[in-house]
Amino acid sequence: MHQFIDQTAGILCEDLYLPLSASGVRLHLRRKYPASGAARAGCSVIVFVHGATYSGVPAFDPALPGGSWLDFVAACGHDAYAIDIRGYGLSSPPGTVLSDWRAQKPYARTDEAIADLSAAVDFILARTGADRVDLVGWSWGTAISGGYASTHEGKVGRLVLYAPLWIVRRRVDWPLALAPLAIFPALAPLYVASLAAFRTTDLAEVRRRWFRGLDSRTAAELCPDDILERWWQQVISADPVGAAHAPPRLTVPTGVVADLLEYWAAGVPTYDPARITVPVMLILGEWDVDTPPEMAQELFSRLTAAPYKRLEVLGRGTHSMSLEANRFDLYQRVGLFLSTPIPSFEKDTK
């Protein structure tokens, strides 16, 4: 465990590691919480779950002007954790996977990621004494946290699905590398079989995908180049495997790509939203082309057992709104949902 204190913001930070699992996986958690240690009324333990590309620290706790999302929720009195799913960031897979990852099958499938989240939640509940956690998932992280909440209702208080993933219907928005599969979906099994355990990407590719559909001026307003480049250095520094490349390239598991093709693009979700019985918020930016508003609307209609649900679309935000100029609008809206009592349902869900 490593700890430092941000005296200015009055926030404590810890890097925690779960005990080595039976399969050889060691999970990393970044924690931020008020230095006072005093829990405020209405505050909770919150676990953030990253998406397909960026691990927990660069996704939720990068050094951005004004602070990160973890800084924001900790300053509001919450006890906040960001998980690195196996193979991402500072969570290490077994050595046998890393030794010859090009010859291995896709690593970190969604069911494995849910198992990682389950282990992290149990670890957090045991060390904090809390009864439940609130979950905030981003993109693929919404499938992980939604899948967990659908089968562990007793351990979840509220659920936030930011840029929620659902059935992929707009194949025109697929990455160029997967474009042939949008035209010939029967090739998907062959493509999945050819996937290595990990994939790599660089800043140029990330920038193209992040801002596609927007002009350069708007992109620069959302995230200026100097901030984007400094953030990218943090992405690489949180990836020991990718940092060792020459030149450095982000290295992440391919399990989510396999699940995208075998499940979401085939019209088969990896979890049943009708089994979620806690309050749920769905929230995304208006310019999100990875998980567009129609995905969220369809998912919203399937949350039939949630005692309370909310869907919000925020202006001037992409799929990565949590890292952009308008991110504090996102932080505040999610914070309001997590902190405001829901009188009609609170006694049934807490």
Key terms:
globular, nine-stranded mixed sheet, alpha/beta, 15 helices, 350 residues, two-stranded antiparallel sheet
Provide structural commentary:
With 350 residues, this protein is α/β, with parallel strands linked by helices. The chain is built from 15 helices and 11 strands. Helices cover 36% and strands 18% of the residues. The strands form 2 sheets. Strands 1-2-3-5-4-6-7-10-11 form a 9-stranded mixed β-sheet, with helices on both faces. Strands 8-9 form a two-stranded antiparallel sheet. A hairpin with a 4-residue loop joins strand 1 and strand 2. The N terminus is likely disordered.
Class from secondary-structure proportions: alpha/beta
Oligomer: single chain
Shape: globular
Helix content: 25-40%
Helix-strand blueprint:
Elements: E1 2-6, E2 11-17, E3 28-34, E4 45-49, H1 56-60, H2 69-75, E5 79-84, H3 95-99, H4 110-128, E6 133-138, H5 140-151, E7 156-162, H6 179-183, H7 188-194, E8 198-201, H8 203-210, H9 216-222, H10 225-237, H11 240-243, E9 250-253, H12 255-262, E10 280-285, H13 293-301, E11 309-314, H14 327-339, H15 346-349
Provide a short characterization of the protein structure.
The chain has 15 helices and 11 strands.
